[in-house]
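Hi V.,

You were right to ask for the full record rather than a summary. Here it is.
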Amino acid sequence: MKPLHQIIRKPLITEKTSSLQKEAGQVVAFEVGREANKIEIKQAVEKAFNVKVTNVNTALVGGKVKRVGRQSGKRSNWKKAYVTLAEGSNIDFFGV
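Predicted structure:
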């Protein structure tokens, strides 16, 4: 298995993911490496946060085209993973 930091890059804490967490139970979103597959993502989340994962959905997000003056460029494409946790499992990023 690849190192955890190559599979899970960072959690995505947005208004959309927090509303998904309230509606659909325990759903957590992560930015993951583009080469990571669902099995690797599941194993990495279970190992890093000591939780039970029931489902993983992934989506490829296209990079935006940005301009600075006359110069234009494109941000990199990246991969997003929606992880559904088992009943009773919880990931607290803020530790409050």
